[in-house]
Amino acid sequence: xxxxxxxxxxxxxxxxxxxxxxxxxxxxxxxxxxxxxxxxxxxxxxxxxxxxxxxxxxxxxxxxxxxxxxxxxxxxxxxxxxxxxxxxxxxxxxxxxxxxxxxxxxxxxxxxxxxxxxxxxxxxxxxxxxxxxxxxxxxxxxxxxxxxxxxxxxxxxxxxxxxxxxxxxxxxxxxxxxxxxxxxxxxxxxxxxxxxxxxxxxxxxxxxxxxxxxxxxxxxxxxxxxxxxxxxxxxxxxxxxxxxxxxxxxxxxxxxxxxxx
Amino acid sequence: xxxxxxxxxxxxxxxxxxxxxxxxxxxxxxxxxxxxxxxxxxxxxxxxxxxxxxxxxxxxxxxxxxxxxxxxxxxxxxxxxxxxxxxxxxxxxxxxxxxxxxxxxxxxxxxxxxxxxxxxxxxxxxxxxxxxxxxxxxxxxxxxxxxxxxxxxxxxxxxxxxxxxxxxxxxxxxxxxxxxxxxxxxxxxxxxxxxxxxxxxxxxxxxxxxxxxxxxxxxxxxxxxxxxxxxxxxxxxxxxxxxxxxxxxxxxxxxxxxxxxxxxxxxxxxxxxxxxxxxxxxxxxxxxxxxxxxxxxxxxxxxxxxxxxxxxxxxxxxxxxxxxxxxxxxxxxxxxxxxxxxxxxxxxxxxxxxxxxxxxxxxxxxxxxxxxxxxxx
Lengths: 261, 377
Fold this sequence. Notes:
The structure holds 2 protein chains of 2 kinds.
Chain A: E1 13-24, E2 27-38, E3 42-47, H1 53-60, E4 68-73, E5 76-77, H2 83-91, E6 93-96, H3 108-119, H4 124-137, H5 153-164, E7 171-175, H6 183-200, E8 203-207, H7 211-217, E9 220-225, E10 230-234, H8 237-243, H9 247-253
Parallel strand pairs in A: 3-8, 3-9, 6-7, 7-8
Antiparallel strand pairs in A: 1-2, 1-4, 4-5, 9-10
Chain B: E1 6-11, E2 16-24, H1 35-44, E3 49-53, E4 57-59, H2 62-78, H3 89-98, H4 116-149, H5 157-167, H6 172-195, H7 202-241, H8 244-250, H9 255-294, H10 298-308, H11 311-337, H12 343-375
Parallel strand pairs in B: 2-3, 2-4
Antiparallel strand pairs in B: 1-2
Helix pairs in contact in B: 2-3, 4-9, 5-9, 6-7, 6-9, 7-9, 7-10, 7-11, 7-12, 9-10, 9-11, 11-12
């Protein structure tokens, strides 16, 4: 684990998205996305269902290619990178998929161990120890030899998080972390995300439409509007709630309730 | 149960068309058509307002709503105001709810029937697209195999052994059954014909040569396409749906190396063995008929078989079997990786894997027949 605490006021850009257009064939989902995620941010990608939040995330981690535009990590152009550079950048990211995405043919310890085996020089005993530590961090101590199908959905998600953290990533991506979780687990996960950000000094990008999470953990965000086919707001969600001029964004952040005049 | 739901119309003096809803409306009984209303409105031509009377409506469900939505649309088109006062309160609320969110622009799909030529064009383009995808996959797999030979490919040895067990040892019962029966069938067909010339002994030659050269490899291939090819497609397809494949990619593991490579290797390793086994069991099947029906002795039968077949026959069959193995594994994995994002897509992937596998096997078999003929094997 890296022990350094993040310095709050250094606003160095970590992820920069320039003129990104996302399209499937000739169908354009979103165009002209421009935003910056700074080091240590908890950045929320928000928007209604079907607005392309998860698709944007898949672009950020290279599972989909932009129709136009570029994505930068620090100064490196992720979109134009050759496959080796890209692997190098990917190694510094951790992703928690919507369903956990755990490899079902492996135990939890093997899921985490596989990354360590590949990218570190640790021996088998050390790998096992690190895997146990990561599982302990997400409250799954003692579940090393369980298969993903043998634990509950919430636990799968936490195990997925443990795997995402395996290589102490600089950026953590979360795709709908609270989907399918009960309110308490969902809040615990939010707290965990914040703690990880503080202790790892990582940048966190979260795709979600849970208002409670958005306001608790987010300090920067982008709002995707499927009707406008582009982003209609960006910035701190709490400030957006108070000052945003776009009625759709305000309605979203207020859960559609009427504003008190 | 009261009478079935119905309609009647009253044309009031002030130009109001009152639609009376009668009896018990239910979806089971069917929905009265709004065309009646249209006819009424058109025929009188003086309706300036549509109102409702539901005092004799004893019960209602979605059938009333469906009818009213149609009437409401009709009124909107003709610019006639519709007075909903006379409807039950629940109906009024549901109707308002159905109309609360306007239709999203562009959400309705264009359902216009494509012309015959257009459909031919679309499917031709689709065919070209899928051929391109298949070639790209073959290219990627070639690169992956080169990585394997340079010992740079990543896969788990434990996965490989598990797969070898699944498509090797666990396939033995079905291969035994089918090959034995194929041997029996071949012997039967031969026996009936050859007996007429008193040449029963040649049943052994027939069964032996047919099994070694063609049937052993072919039947094993078809069994494995249905059994293992479908399983590969379903496994990989499900992994796509649960984002396990995405997780591999983002973790820097190539799904081709990690998922496809061990499956191809497992089948390359197991198909020749299964084929040899099938050959052997097929000959036993033939012998059972030879001994049981044609009064040959076991020794005569096996000596005749041994004389008839050559090592070339056997190795040709075994070689074909390994090629079929590659084809089955590749088509299973390709269909799995092309799988969409739903559970029905996994089923489609499995079906399509079997079809692709069998077509590939039969095509390869034809090509082999020609090539072997030209080479004089």
